[in-house]
């Protein structure tokens, strides 16, 4: 089947097998290997990307279902050479160790902050509760997201 | 958190983060080679069955399939079996029988991963199911089916008997002890479940004869040597590249059949072959941990002075004895089970048995079975406190080793290097507000509060940094680590080490070690690791050994360079070397500090035309091999506070206080991160993680829907404290920390839950303390945590 998917603001048209998973489409067809695969069962969230600005587990979605939609992956977080505050927060607060869950965690964090710019600790924990991290015990991920919240310049703030 | 880069030890951002936050890490599945094929493994649906026939013809006929490899194919190459890390053998692809559910039976190589999986469906295997051994306690029964009839003359499922300590002395103490308490406990089978599964990409170049294997291995050099030994390939023609690893925790130490299959697949097809296991394969077939059935006994005086501990262990090693530990120690370092206490004598007996489950045993941040040892002694201390009606903190404080007893030789022969245990426990109790917590608990109990509050302690002593060459080897390979440092003419440095990070931040920490010793910025030091063609030999990263062994090697090699720099500086400054003194980054003339040369100036001179003293070669580099004189002994005091709902059995971890002493901290930020992760592991193991089997050997924890791992909502905000007792024999006084929290925390959580359940007269219940197990314990119903309850 032919599909056209906009990934990180760039449209891609490809012929794909109908059963191809979105995660494999992104990784193997487009070479965007920042999106990881971890479990098959939608439990771990290593594969989280945003579809039309909503976090989705890309191992549980077929590539053809993304036809006509906008996908954002970790590679799309940095804009014009400027890191997203979430990316900076993960570095500042040691929010990652092995780095495998990090792209998915950051994309969920971005969604959270877009919808709730000042989340408290429990809201952050709930937002990432569909994703697993085996290294950090989550503490520094929570701090990283808080850091991003505190260092996001909204138009109101900068005005 | 931190903004400046220290010229050595201290908090600094991780160098590796720059690529990971951009999605630019390179894990094995990210590596793509031209013409690459994909492999997939057909696995056994049975726990124990005879293979009658394997028909691969339909699979081979599927368009896109390039090769189908069976045990028979491998047998023709002499590769059907491979040695394990415990000097047993393991089937690469089964030939005679399958011995656990999920065992490897056939390997398909195809154009893409979807076709490879399709082809698996087309392979027909005719099995004759056999009775299986699932409960280790039945493994030695007369009627038990013999699992390893491949071994010459094997008539039972016994692997080894091993003991440590003084049996007679221990028996004598027990005979006359005022108080004796015995407790059966199981440390159930768990799996480390790193987020990245295992996999390999093998590329055999027929022209050069060079084999390159990309594989997320924690021990790349050991893999290279083992491949050479197994496959008969010359070792210099094997290159193992361990790229970024998505977590290891011990599960990526050994060689798995899939790796060998990928290599054979590449040799057979002449193309690069990638094999990535899926999550179920990972949970069912790669190394598990624990599975220790323990009967512990503790002898004490009426006033709570512990005199002796003894334990009998039945160790379930699965279908092949594949545990990774130094050769001398079939039960790993379990015999450190006298723990942190001043105990006169101790004795343990361990019996290892085969069962129809996956092989493994030490694969989960356990420091070679110290997890089991700490759990045993810390549970026994609480059981004793329960029987004596003593506060568990008071009992511990009364028995902890005192600072003046170090170095201390334990009853089973360990030489603890340094410690001040009471100080560490006191700090944890102060941070927790221990007395207030007990007062709150008493008040809630008095008020008949429905929710049950529990406070649990554990105090652990680890033995890490394996290890001294004379005592420790794996398959004959000594456990010393090499390091190589080159300082370039402009004073920038490259450190090459043998160990391999799985997220521990070696690129940062090891650069800081060089920086500390050489007085240059860590930003000016690149750390190369994970490529056997580019790094010196060493045994890898596990058992918290990177900092104790490779970290020491990094410090020692930098000191060699510093000494060389001194000689060069003496030539530059035209003074005798003895007249020079070192201040960080600079050799200068004693008494005339303005007259000196920076390491950068010396680096340039050493590559330049300055006339060097007799016997001093040019350039500024060095190599070293560090053979640790002893293990290091990190320790810590943990306190967990829980609330238990008796109606549902739900446990909420309200607080967790962890005071760790890992000696000198190179990068405290990274150290704290390591501890955070291990504490979450403790909650997982204590409350939810379990590899259960039904009576036919079906794996009931083979996906993340069934094998539960803690998420952010089950974890509290960790409260960390520290004491610093440097290791006296380590060059920088560091002790290692990677596994401390995983070792120490499960006992604290379990002790907290059982403290909450004390009003019900419950002294012990096995992990995992899931809602249903807690509820059953409250109801007085039996709980089984090794097998599914039916």
UniProtKB/TrEMBL annotation, chain A:
Keyword Zinc carried by entry: no
InterPro entries in UniProt: 2Fe-2S-bd, 2Fe-2S-bd_dom_sf, 2Fe-2S_ferredoxin-like_sf, 2Fe-2S_ferredoxin-type, Beta-grasp_dom_sf, Diverse_Oxidoreductases
Domain 2Fe-2S ferredoxin-type per the UniProt entry, residue ranges: 1-77
Pfam family, one: Fer2
Transmembrane segments: none
GO MF entries: 2 iron, 2 sulfur cluster binding; metal ion binding; oxidoreductase activity
Pathway: Alkaloid degradation; nicotine degradation
PROSITE patterns hit by this protein: 2FE2S_FER_2 (PS51085)
Taxonomy, superkingdom: Bacteria
Keywords annotated in UniProt: 2Fe-2S, Iron, Iron-sulfur, Metal-binding, Oxidoreductase
Organism annotation: Sinosporangium siamense
Full protein name: (2Fe-2S)-binding protein
Keyword Oxidoreductase: yes
Automatic annotation (TrEMBL), chain B:
Domain Aldehyde oxidase/xanthine dehydrogenase a/b hammerhead: 22-131
Keywords associated with the record: Molybdenum, Oxidoreductase
GO molecular function: anaerobic carbon-monoxide dehydrogenase activity; copper ion binding; iron ion binding; molybdenum ion binding
Top-level taxon: Bacteria
Alphabetical list of InterPro entries matching this protein: Ald_Oxase/Xan_DH_a/b (IPR000674), Ald_Oxase/Xan_DH_a/b_sf (IPR036856), Ald_Oxase/xanthine_DH-like (IPR016208), AldOxase/xan_DH_MoCoBD1 (IPR008274), AldOxase/xan_DH_MoCoBD2 (IPR046867), AldOxase/xan_DH_Mopterin-bd_sf (IPR037165), CO_Mo_DH_lsu (IPR012780)
Native source organism of the sequence: Sinosporangium siamense
Protein name: Carbon-monoxide dehydrogenase large subunit
Family annotation (NCBIfam families): CO_dehy_Mo_lg
Cofactor(s) required, per the database record: Mo-molybdopterin cytosine dinucleotide
Endpoints of the signal sequence: none
């Amino acid at each position: 089947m032919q599909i056209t998917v906009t990934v990180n603001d760039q449209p891609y048209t490809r012929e794909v097998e109908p059963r191809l998973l979105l995660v494999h489409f992104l990784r193997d067809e487009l070479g965007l290997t920042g999106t990881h695969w971890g479990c098959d069962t939608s439990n771990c969230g290593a594969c989280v990307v945003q579809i039309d600005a909503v976090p989705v587990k890309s191992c549980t979605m077929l590539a053809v279902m993304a036809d006509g939609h906008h996908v954002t992956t970790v590679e799309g977080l940095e804009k014009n050479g400027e890191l997203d505050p979430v990316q900076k927060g993960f570095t500042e607060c040691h929010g990652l160790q092995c780095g495998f869950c990090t792209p998915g965690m950051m994309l969920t964090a971005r969604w959270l902050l877009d919808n709730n710019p000042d989340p408290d600790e429990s809201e952050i924990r709930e937002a990432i509760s569909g994703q697993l991290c085996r290294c950090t015990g989550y503490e520094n991920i929570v701090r990283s997201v808080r850091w991003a919240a505190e260092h996001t310049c909204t138009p109101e703030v900068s005005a | 958190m931190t903004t400046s880069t220290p010229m050595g030890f201290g908090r600094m951002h991780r160098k590796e983060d720059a690529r990971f936050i951009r999605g630019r890490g390179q894990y094995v599945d990210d590596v793509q080679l031209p013409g690459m094929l994909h492999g997939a493994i057909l696995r056994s649906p049975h726990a124990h069955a005879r293979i009658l026939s394997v028909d691969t013809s339909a699979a081979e006929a599927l368009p896109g399939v390039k090769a189908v490899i069976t045990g028979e194919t491998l047998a023709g190459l002499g590769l059907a079996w491979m040695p394990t890390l415990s000097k047993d053998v393991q089937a690469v692809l089964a030939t005679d029988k399958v011995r656990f559910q999920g065992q490897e039976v056939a390997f398909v190589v195809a154009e893409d991963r979807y076709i490879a999986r399709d082809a698996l469906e087309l392979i027909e295997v005719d099995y004759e199911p056999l009775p299986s051994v699932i409960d280790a306690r039945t493994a030695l029964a007369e009627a038990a089916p013999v699992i390893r009839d491949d071994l010459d003359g094997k008539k039972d499922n016994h692997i080894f008997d091993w003991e440590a300590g003084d049996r007679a002395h221990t028996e004598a103490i027990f005979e006359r002890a005022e108080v004796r308490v015995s407790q059966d406990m199981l440390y159930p089978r768990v799996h480390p479940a790193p987020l990245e599964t295992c996999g390999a990409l093998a590329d055999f170049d027929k022209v050069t004869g060079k084999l390159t294997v990309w594989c997320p291995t924690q021990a790349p050099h050991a893999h290279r040597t083992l491949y050479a030994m197994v496959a008969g390939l010359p070792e210099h023609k094997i290159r193992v590249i361990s790229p970024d690893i998505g977590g290891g925790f011990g599960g990526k130490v050994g060689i798995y059949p899939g790796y060998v299959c990928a290599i054979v697949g590449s040799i057979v097809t002449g193309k690069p072959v990638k094999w990535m296991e899926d999550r179920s394969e990972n949970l069912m077939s790669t190394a598990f941990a624990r599975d220790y059935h323990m009967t512990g006994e503790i002898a004490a005086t009426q006033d709570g002075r512990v005199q002796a501990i003894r334990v009998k262990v039945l160790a379930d090693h699965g279908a092949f004895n594949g545990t990774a530990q130094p050769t001398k120690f079939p039960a790993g370092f379990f015999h450190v089970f006298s723990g942190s206490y001043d105990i006169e004598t101790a004795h343990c007996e361990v019996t290892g048995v085969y069962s129809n489950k996956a092989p493994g045993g030490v694969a989960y941040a356990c420091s070679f079975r110290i997890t089991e040892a700490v759990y045993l002694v810390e549970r026994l201390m609480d059981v004793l406190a329960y029987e004596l009606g003593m506060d568990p903190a008071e009992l511990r404080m009364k028995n902890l080793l005192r600072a003046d007893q170090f170095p201390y030789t334990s009853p089973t022969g360990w030489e603890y290097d340094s410690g001040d245990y009471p100080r560490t426990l006191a700090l944890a109790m102060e941070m927790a507000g221990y007395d207030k917590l007990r007062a709150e608990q008493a008040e809630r109990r008095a008020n008949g509060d429905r929710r049950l509050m529990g406070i649990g302690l554990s105090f652990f002593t680890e033995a890490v940094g394996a290890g001294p060459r004379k005592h420790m080897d794996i398959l004959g390979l000594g456990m010393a680590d090499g390091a190589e440092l080159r300082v370039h003419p402009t004073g920038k440095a490259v450190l090459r080490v043998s160990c391999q990070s799985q997220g521990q931040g070696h690129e940062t920490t090891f650069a800081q070690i060089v920086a500390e010793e050489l007085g240059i910025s860590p930003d000016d030091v690149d750390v190369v690791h994970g490529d056997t063609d580019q790094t010196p030999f060493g045994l890898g990263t596990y058992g918290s050994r990177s900092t104790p062994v490779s970290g020491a090697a990094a410090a020692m090699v930098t000191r060699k360079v510093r000494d060389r720099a001194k000689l060069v500086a003496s030539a530059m400054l035209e003074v005798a070397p003895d007249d020079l003194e070192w201040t960080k980054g600079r050799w200068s003339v004693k008494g005339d500090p303005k007259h000196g040369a920076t390491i950068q100036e010396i680096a340039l001179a050493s590559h330049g035309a300055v006339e060097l003293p007799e016997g001093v070669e040019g350039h500024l580099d060095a190599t070293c091999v560090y053979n640790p004189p002893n293990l290091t002994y990190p320790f810590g005091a943990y306190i967990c506070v829980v609330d238990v709902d008796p109606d549902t059995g739900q446990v909420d971890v309200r607080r967790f206080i962890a005071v760790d002493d890992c000696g000198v901290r190179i990068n405290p930020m990274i150290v704290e991160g390591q501890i955070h992760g291990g504490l979450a592991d403790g909650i997982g193991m204590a409350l939810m993680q379990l590899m259960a089997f039904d009576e036919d050997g079906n794996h009931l924890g083979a996906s993340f829907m069934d094998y539960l791992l803690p998420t952010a909502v089950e974890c509290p905000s960790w409260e960390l404290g520290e004491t610093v007792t440097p290791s006296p024999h380590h060059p920088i006084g560091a002790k290692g920390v990677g596994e401390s929290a995983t070792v120490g925390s499960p006992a604290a959580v379990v002790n907290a839950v059982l403290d909450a359940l004390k009003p019900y007269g419950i002294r012990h219940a096995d992990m995992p303390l899931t809602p249903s197990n807690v509820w059953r314990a409250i109801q007085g119903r039996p709980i089984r945590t090794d097998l599914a309850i039916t």
